[in-house]
Write a structure and sequence with these properties.
The complex is a heterodimer of chains A (276) and B (248).
Chain A: H1 3-7, H2 15-40, H3 44-64, H4 68-89, H5 94-115, H6 122-127, H7 135-154, H8 156-164, H9 166-169, H10 176-198, H11 203-217, H12 221-246, H13 250-271
Helix pairs in contact in A: 2-7, 2-10, 2-11, 2-12, 3-4, 3-5, 3-10, 3-11, 4-5, 4-10, 7-10, 11-12, 11-13, 12-13
Chain B: E1 2-13, E2 16-27, E3 31-35, H1 42-49, E4 57-62, E5 65-66, E6 76-79, H2 94-100, H3 114-126, H4 142-154, E7 160-164, H5 172-189, E8 192-196, H6 200-206, E9 209-214, E10 217-222, H7 228-238
Parallel strand pairs in B: 3-8, 3-9, 6-7, 7-8
Antiparallel strand pairs in B: 1-2, 1-4, 4-5, 9-10
Helix pairs in contact in B: 2-4, 3-4, 4-5
The chains are: A mainly alpha (276), B alpha/beta (248).
């Protein structure tokens, strides 16, 4: 890699790189935005379970000849609603319900991938591939990003209260049950639109690692969100550019860079004895 | 004016009856103390008043409305036993914690307005914490957090205040501050307060009604005819638990 090429933004001459960076930045905004609420509710595993179900959605799309993102969206929304129902009905065994949904998703995906004639591209959906992002994907990712941001702005304080104390939220007039359902749908949309950039196996990491870094520095909830988005965008852009020059899987590169940022912030806080 | 009415309420966990045919009524401006040993049914009754549990039999009315029909929960302020059990590293400021309780007052687009901001400041002034507005909640002491949660409750100007053992794990100084603030809210603002407590001695100085719970039954007293020593002796006889006796 010639470093001058990087600074001259040579990679932007390629249409697929422009699409990948645009999609990556949109995903880089919504993943930690949703991730802050998920992580603080200690529900990060839901992202992990939904990503495996989304893989089943992709496999259904490949098997039946649909556009994979559409089927991933539909299947992960259904799974998200099922998780919410199980989480409510079996609150003492919430993790068990996640494990069941995750396993079922992976089981369906495995069978369909084996049966499918078009399963050659499945690896790209597992690990993320920047060459996978087409123009139609950009339209979908852009629309869903706007929708997710609008929903989070509208219900920001409700989601915040649910994250802080779900039991007390209802008494403050927060419609906990319906907001939980809205939040699960937002989470499933985030997972579905992140598939092409980071891959199903690593989506949960993009939802949680930049948030973990942001939480080390945020003095307030809003600042934590901004820091998380900042670290996520740094990871996404660096990861995509590195994966272009070194022919690496974009998902893995993005996630590894986000881990490096997390370790750097931990070291920075220790060395300079910063207490937030 | 009756604010809270409990009529022949029963509740069991499986075969174990924890609330046994309780009927009580509280007027506007009452400060009622629910006292009694662990498992006597007082917290279960509070959970039914807040709608978190449904009575097996009987009915509970708040402002003459059945609990399951109450739409405007902002008129009911609540601090639970677990109020300070939150994740202490939760990245939120005092302003954000109190703002979240204004959700019901926000319009269709749930954003803060300058009038809601001034309500936050007013609530913090009530507990003398306005200078802490931009501090991280987890960095405050237990007593300061307690006052923030009172401000969060009061920001909606509730008419009925339910406190379910909010002083567990709080030091004596913070307990005194808490009673001072809640006493002022009750006397000066005329709010109805119902508080579950283990510390009969402290709460009996503030409350005008004391309801003793024992094996799911409730025995109401006016505070002026409540015999503290007799109550303590009764507990000692049953060897249920030791009640702190500051000042007695």
């Amino acid at each position: 890699m010639d470093i001058r090429e990087v600074f001259q933004l040579e990679f932007l001459n390629y249409a697929f790189m422009r699409r990948a960076l645009l999609a990556g930045n949109l995903v880089g905004i919504v993943a930690p935005l949703v991730g802050v609420f998920l992580s603080l509710r200690r529900l990060s595993l839901i992202g992990h379970a939904l990503s495996h179900v989304a893989l089943a959605g992709v496999a259904i799309g490949l098997f039946a000849g649909f556009f994979p993102i559409y089927s991933a969206i539909v299947v992960s929304i259904i799974a998200a609603l099922a998780i919410e129902k199980l989480r409510r009905d079996y609150s003492d065994y919430a993790e068990l319900s996640l494990a069941i949904i995750l396993a079922a998703g992976l089981g369906i995906a495995t069978i369909l991938i084996n049966l499918s004639q078009r399963s050659a591209g499945i690896q790209s959906y597992l690990f993320g591939s920047i060459s996978l992002v087409g123009t139609r994907d950009i339209y979908i990712i852009f629309s869903l990003t706007l929708l997710i941001i609008a929903i989070i702005i509208k219900y920001y304080y409700g989601f915040f209260f649910l994250a802080f104390n779900e039991d007390e939220a209802r008494l403050a007039g927060v419609p906990a049950r319906s907001l939980n359902i809205v939040f699960m749908i937002v989470t499933s949309l985030t997972v579905a639109l992140s598939i092409q950039i980071v891959g199903t196996l690593l989506i949960a990491s993009l939802i949680t690692i930049p948030v973990a870094t942001g939480m080390l520095l945020g003095r307030s909830f809003k600042m934590t969100i901004w820091y998380s988005i900042f670290f996520s965008l740094m990871s996404v852009n660096t990861g995509i550019v590195l994966s272009f020059y070194y022919d690496l899987a974009s998902g893995g590169t993005i996630i590894l860079f986000s881990v490096v940022l997390l370790l750097m912030v931990i070291a920075f806080k220790k060395i300079f004895k910063i207490n937030i | 004016m009756i604010v809270l009415e409990i009529n022949n309420v029963n509740f069991s966990y499986g075969d174990e009856k924890v609330v046994d045919n309780i009927s009580l009524a509280f007027d506007k401006g009452d400060f009622a103390a629910f006292v009694g040993p662990n498992g006597s049914g007082k917290s279960t009754l509070i959970k039914m008043i807040t709608g978190n549990l449904k009575p097996d039999q009987g009915e509970i009315k708040i402002f003459d409305q059945l609990v399951n029909r109450v739409k405007d929960w902002t008129k009911i302020g609540y601090i639970s036993q677990q109020v300070r059990d939150f994740n202490q590293s939760f990245p939120a400021t005092v302003r954000e914690i109190i703002a979240s309780n204004l959700y019901g007052k926000m319009g269709i687009i749930k954003v803060m307005t300058s009038s809601l901001e001034s309500e936050i400041l007013q609530a913090l002034k009530l507990v003398d914490m306005e200078s802490f507005i931009d501090r991280k909640i987890g960095n405050l002491s237990g007593g300061q957090q307690q006052r923030v949660f009172i401000a969060r409750m009061m920001v909606n100007n509730p008419d009925l205040i339910l406190l379910d053992e909010p002083l567990v794990g709080v030091d004596i100084k913070a307990q005194d501050d808490f009673y001072q603030i809640i006493g002022d809210i009750n006397h000066n603002l005329g709010k109805t307060v119902i508080m579950v407590s283990h510390d009969v001695n402290l709460i009996s100085k503030e409350a005008n009604k004391i309801v003793c719970f024992d094996e799911g039954k409730a025995f109401p007293h006016q505070s002026n005819d409540f015999d503290y020593d007799h109550y303590i002796e009764g507990l000692r006889d049953t060897s249920i638990r030791i009640i702190p006796e500051h000042g007695h």
